[in-house]
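Appendix C reproduces, verbatim, an entry submitted by the partner laboratory led by Prof. M.T., so that reviewers can inspect both the input and the predicted structure.
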Amino acid sequence: MNNNYDDAMGELDKAEGINPTPQVTPEIQPEVEQPKITSLGKARDYQGTDNDEPALLPGYVEIWPNNFPSQGMFYNPALRFFIRAAEVKEIRHFSTINEQDPFSIDEALNEIVKSCLMLRLPGKQMSFKDLKEEDRIFIIMAIRDLTFSKGENNLVLRPVCKECNHENELVVNNNTFDRTELSQQILKYYNEESRVFDVTTKSSGTIKIAPPTIGIMMEVTKYIRKQQEEGKKIDQSFIKVLPYMTQDWRGFTESYIKNLEIEFMTWNATKYQTMNTLVDLCRIGVKENLHMECAKCGTEVTTPISFPGGIKSLFVISDISGELL
């Protein structure tokens, strides 16, 4: 481990005798005990109660945030998530994406989430933009499961075992993903009331940090695209920490980003190294590789996550042979 990393981690130690006051978010409701969920990929049918508004939820099913890559750590405990199957209009739009353009793919995935996800929190207007960016893959795959509930569009990888050369079959879904686990090094700073990490440092005060939402990442992407279109040089070190410099996408505009960049330029080496390390420590998501046991010899088989037929195959059936007579 290099000296910069050691210096940064030393900076993260809490100042002796300091106990930061918890940040209490006014709209947080008393936590309601959720039923224990044992499956990562199954959505539970919505069942109305006296306090629900079933008329607003036709065709929706509820899914539980403790199954997300974030495990629900960064959401209000009272926030509820509902999804529905993608309809023809969403599938039609998704089929037009340019798979060679990362921006086009990102926009198409966000459109699916925007159309098929509903967030409900008593007393507050919520948006799909409040979903954590790294939880998006779970939502997409769950929506996909509802859309193709009869298994008519399975994503199947065929990794070959290096030991016995057997070609295995691995269905790609939420159950086959491995989550990235946060380390105790960052978890010890978790504030259960504010739902962020409150990191007390020796010389940079308290740094509040949490994984970014879709709304924040949409604005960061818009900023990057504009910089590229104008032929301006992009500071990659700033772009890396930018999504973690705020927790709310509301008001996160281009002018606000420019103010953050000015602030970023005033940081000394210690603060930059500290923030850079914190960003790495609080990354969540799913791991890049999938694992399974070889069906023939039992050896562990590893294969990168990929989508046979490309990203479009998430919602567009490429093999229509089953529909033909």
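The longest helix spans residues 214-229. Additional entries are available on request from the coordinating office.
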